[in-house]
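This follows on from our talk about sequence and fold. I would like you to pick a protein and set down its sequence and fold. Go ahead and set the record down below:
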Amino acid sequence: MTLRQVVTAAMQQNPDVAIARLDEESARLAVRVAKDPFTPRLTVGSGLAYSNGFPMSIEGSAPSIVQARATAYILNRQQSYSVAQTKEDARAAGFGVSSKRDEVAYRTTSLYLDAERAGRASELARKDIESLQRVLDTVRAQVGEGRALPLQEKQAAFNLARARQIADTLESDSTAAETSLALAIGLTADDRVHPVAEERPAPRAVDDTERMVQAALDRNPEIRRLQSQIASKGLEARGEKAARYPRLDLVAQYGLFAKFNNYEDYFRTFQRNNGQIGMSIQVPLFTGSGVAAQVAQTETEIAKLRIQLTRTRNQLSADLQTAVREQHKAELAADVARLDLEVAREQLSVNLAQMQEGRLPLRQVEESRIAENAKWIAFYDAQYALEKARWNLLRLSGDLLPAIQSLP
């Protein structure tokens, strides 16, 4: 898979992203739950019973064949603030999904780069084994002809064994990285995702640090989530204060009475169909100290969230400045590794020419080839470090996903 394919799959199948989406859906459903009391509820049932003597009530209603009740909030400031709070919580859950998507995208990108690097290093290690095998064969022949010491043969055998050990370790690292990458995109531990050998454009470098920091602070999903939580807690505090406000509820009921409940014996008139509709008005006169304590507790939580918001903003600003410096250091290291590789390649070319002229033995040429492979590994490491530094900077600035989606 390519890097773009891997990140796209992770956005669709990663378990962490899926859980965040479910939390967001749960928050949206909570809004419907909070709104429900403002919708009239109709309950139909029966209170049918036989009366001996005075007809008493059953659960607050006279005995009836059919009874129906309807209730709904008309004016309830406390519940209205609860609805507004759940809406803000749903908004915060949306920011949580965005934050989780950015986190998973960067983690998947890092795993992809690790798997890609491990695969290339393993390939170069196998080339080292081939070169060292040729060196060992040459030294053995020289020992047999008496032109080299047995110690040199042992040294060559040791170098070959060490190269095989390194190659085996790198192969194991490559397998582990590809398995981790499979888990990141929602596959099983038995699966492996192999990076495609591709020439992808390098992530863009960020130069205007001040503008980038300000833009990141304005749109960072974690900061916006904390801001939304502060707004939600503010609505919660207002809802707790609204417990002192009057309430107005819709009340309606109907009852079909039976004739065998002795109503006509105790009441002057009897009517089988009975109903009423009206409003229930409740005015709190004394709410106790619990409301004030709840408000104070909520305001304490708001103060805590404000501290977290300030800390998050400062940390993000510091992380961005650090990431810019790390990008610059990675660029310098990549230039040094590139120049070092060019020197090693030129030296190998010179040695090959001298070998063809008969002025240099094969062993020294193979040793130059091994040195070139080491420089290639250092060059790849520097390139991966630079690419990872730039992806990290894009993650912090909020541009990671758009940048990956623009890849071919």
Notes: The chain has one domain: 3-39+76-245+284-405.
